[in-house]
Amino acid sequence: MKKLFTTALAAVMLLGGTLVSASDYPNKTVEVITHAGAGGGTDVTARMMMLRA
After folding, report:
1. What is the mean pLDDT of each run of 10 residues along the chain (53 residues)?
2. What's the rounded Cα separation, in Å, for the pair 48 and 40?
3. Is 46 exposed, middle or buried (0-12, 13-18, 19+ CB in 10 A)?
4. How far is Cα 51 from Cα 15, in angstroms, rounded to an integer?
């Protein structure tokens, strides 16, 4: 019973910390660097992915 309580407590602490830290992420600008030039397929795909992120 003690092991179950400890496991449940650890899970609640882990999930609680995740929810709190996820609410303010990202707190800085995210810079994406691609290996191809501007306007190419890689650039367009990266820009579309960042809109969803």
Report:
1. 70 60 68 84 88 80
2. 12
3. middle
4. 26
